[in-house]
Amino acid sequence: MSEGLMKMWIAFGAIAFMFFSVFFIYVSRFKLKRKFLKGLTATFAYLFMVIAGLIIMLVVFSGPVQK
């Protein structure tokens, strides 16, 4: 597998983390009533978002790949 293709799959993984983050925030704000579970799901959501941002930053700033 080429380096460019590997970077693409890593970026797709980061995008999936962003979707998980949106889902967990939605569940936390609108579906859960218990305060502990709301806090736990919100923590996971923000953790996923931070990790996704770091991954995307690494992919973007690692530069172009050689042919």
TrEMBL record:
InterPro entries: DUF2768. The chain crosses the membrane at residues 6-27, 39-61. Keywords: Membrane, Transmembrane, Transmembrane helix. This is DUF2768 domain-containing protein.
